[in-house]
From TrEMBL:
It catalyses: Release of N-terminal amino acids, preferentially methionine, from peptides and arylamides. PANTHER family: METHIONINE AMINOPEPTIDASE 2 (PTHR45777:SF2). It comes from Scleroderma citrinum Foug A. NCBIfam families: met_pdase_II. This is Methionine aminopeptidase 2. Its EC number is 3.4.11.18. Residues 44-57 have a biased composition (Basic residues). Residues 1-22 have a biased composition (Basic and acidic residues).
Amino acid sequence: MIAKPEEASVAALEKEERVGHEEEYDSEGDGVIEGSAAGGGDTKKKKKKKKKPKKKRAEQSDPPRTGISKIFLNGVYPEGEIQPYKDDNAWRTTSEEKKYTEKMALEDPEVTYQNIRRAAEVHRQVRHYARKYIRPGMSLTEIAEYIENGTRALVEEDGLECGVGFPTGLSRNNCAAHFTPNAGDTTILKSGDVLKVDFGVHVKGRILDSAFTLTWEPTYDKLVEAVKAATDTGVKEAGIDVRLGELAGYIQETMESYEVEVNGQVFPVKPIENLSGHSIGIYQIHGGKSVLLVKNEDQTKMEEGDYFAIETFGSTGRGRVVESGDCSHYSKIINAPRVPIRLTSAKSLLKSITTNFGTLPFCRRYLDRVGESKYLLGLNHLVQQGIVQDYPPLCDALGAMTAQFEHTILLRPTVKEIISRGDDY
C-alpha cells in the first residue's frame, strides 16, 4: 500500500520519537542522559556518573603482613602525641606566623611529615604483635626475623625508598645496646632475662627510632619503670631552645629517684653516663647532636625543625658501658674519606653496601640476605680504612641489669610531636 501524504508525516513523527527515546541511553546502555526527549528540560546531554565502589580498608594480619597503605587508603597517617611548648615558647602554639611556617613545611616535599608518621605507624603495629609474640624459650634470631619481616611487609619495602631503619637490637641483661644475632647464633631468651628491643623503620630516609624493655619476672620491674619514666621526662622537657646539658640533668634526676631490690640487696638505678639520645638526619641515624643522660655543660640548643631520638638507659651496675663481644652492627660513614681500597673483595662489598643500605646501619645478617658471602675480611678492611663504622655490643659489668626506652620526637614550629607514642609506651 502506498502511504498517503498525511500518513507519511505521522510515520515520520513516530520515527523521530523512537530515535529520541533511543538517545536517552548512552552508548554503553547503562546511563540515562539527562535533558533527553524523555526527561525534557535542559537540552545538553549529561551522563549520570556511575558510583565507583569504595575501596575496602584492610585489617592487619597476625603475624603482621598487611602493607600499611592498604589500611590507610588516603595516605594520611596518624599524628603522634602533641605536647605544647613550655615557658618562653608557649606562644608558638597560637602564633599565626608559626602556623603559617608549619603550613609551608607541610607542603614542602623535603619535610614530609607523612613519611615520618607512616614509619611510626608501622613501628606501632609491628611492636604490638611482637610484644605478644616474644617469650622465653625463643631464639634471638627468631625474634629478630619476626620483627624485621613484619617491618618489611608493613612499610612495603622498596630498596632505599623505604624499609628497615637499622638492625633489630636484642640486647640482654648487662648488654645495653648494639647486639643483634649474627648468622648461626643460637642464643635462647630466658625467663630471667631483661631484654631491650630496639628497632627502626624508615620512609624516604626519615628514620623512626623507638625502643622498649621486656622482662618476665618482677625483680627488675622497678628498673624498667625508672627508665621509662626517665624517657618520658626527657620527652616532656625537650623543646626549642632547651640546652642539651640541662635536659640531661632532668633525665638523670628522674632515673636516680629509683632503686631496685635484688635478693635482699638494694641497688640504685644509675643512668649510663656514656650512652645518649641523638638527633636524626635523613638516611643518618646519628645526626650530630647528643642528649647525654647525666647533667653536663653542653650549651647546644635544640632548634625548630630538629628531629630527635630521646633514648635513656639505666643500670643496676656501674652505669658505664664498654665494647664487648662480636660486632654485628655497621654503617657506611657519611662523607667517608676517598682512600685507596686494595682488596678486590672490599671494593665489591662496598658497592653492595652502597646499593643496598646507603648510609643506613646494617648487620651481618643483612649482608647474608642480599647474597654476600665470605665478606668478613673485606668488611674489616673497610672499617680500618675509615669508610665503614663498626658498632660493637656495649655492656655494663657482668651481673648488672640494664633497661632502655626510646621515643622519636619532632620539634614542629607550633608544637612538639612525639611521633612514636603508642598505647603501650
